[in-house]
Specification:
Blueprint (H helix, E strand, L loop, with lengths): L1 H12 L7 E5 L6 H7 L3 E6 L2 H11 L3 E3 L12 E7 L9 H10 E12 L22 H9 L4 E9 L3 H18 L10 H15 L13 E4 L8 E7 L1
Parallel strand pairs: 1-2, 1-4, 2-3, 4-5
Antiparallel strand pairs: 5-8, 6-7, 6-8
Helix pairs in contact: 1-2
Length: 239
């Protein structure tokens, strides 16, 4: 949900001081760039999609570039803060990518990494509903993946008050039901444009009866306890 993504950027901005060197990996639409820059970040965003890079540059005036999704074209220790929100699920093996994040962190740098909590999204043996996700994580699995590369790992859960929590859980429940119907994975063979429209429809249906004024970022928080109940997972890691 975009609101959880927005919360992650606002949390990251609290770590920023004037001149903090920030790398934003997989920035997507790009709305995180002004949040971090307004906090004082010396900002660079990297994204695999050239169209997203063009959009973020034009819409937000962000310093952005294309990368291959694996190797970060920056020197060792170049950044005080790396943010990578909702990206780790795209990797079947995230360790080479995580090692690149570790490499470009300064000695006292921090990386913030988020991912969906698979508990709400997948039944045992189901493929991720997002066709581009190679793997989704429980809290323990996420911690283990991060700890394989980083010496210091703290995992938080991102939680939300109602009605936000119900919207997120309803989307996951709908995806699980449809996955049971589509046991042979026909939807993964749909053209990407049609699949994107289908996923967008499910997102809208899940919040059709919700007052939009109740979907606000101040109803989102992160905590270190009860991670199995979290909507998203937030990892804070150091070299």
């Amino acid at each position: 949900m975009a609101l959880l993504h927005l919360y992650a950027y606002q949390h990251a901005a609290e770590r920023v001081r004037p001149g903090t060197r920030v790398l934003d990996l997989g920035f997507g639409e790009g709305y995180g760039a002004p949040i971090l820059r307004e906090a004082g970040a010396h900002y660079l965003g990297l994204e695999v999609d050239p169209e997203m890079v063009e959009h973020a540059s034009a819409e937000y005036g962000a310093t952005v570039d294309v990368y291959d999704g694996a190797s970060i074209p920056e020197p060792d220790g170049a950044f005080d803060l790396v943010v990578a929100f909702q990206i780790i699920a795209y990797f079947a093996d995230p360790q080479p990518w995580l090692r690149e994040i570790r490499r470009v962190l300064s000695a006292d740098g921090v990386a913030l990494i988020t991912t969906p909590n698979r508990v709400w999204r997948l039944d045992e043996g189901q493929r991720p509903w997002n066709r581009h996700h190679a793997r989704e994580y429980t809290a323990d699995e996420f911690r283990g993946a991060l700890a394989a590369t980083f010496s210091t790992v703290i995992v938080y859960g991102i939680f939300a008050d109602e009605p936000i929590a119900s919207v997120v859980k309803a989307r996951g429940a709908r995806a699980r039901r449809l996955s049971k119907i589509d046991r042979i994975g026909l939807r993964y063979r749909l053209p990407e444009s049609l699949d994107a429209r289908l996923r967008g429809l499910f997102r809208r249906v899940a919040q059709d009866d919700v007052d939009a004024s109740e979907l606000t970022v101040d109803r989102v928080r992160h905590e270190e306890d009860n991670l199995e109940l979290a909507l998203d997972l937030l990892g804070e890691v150091r070299r």
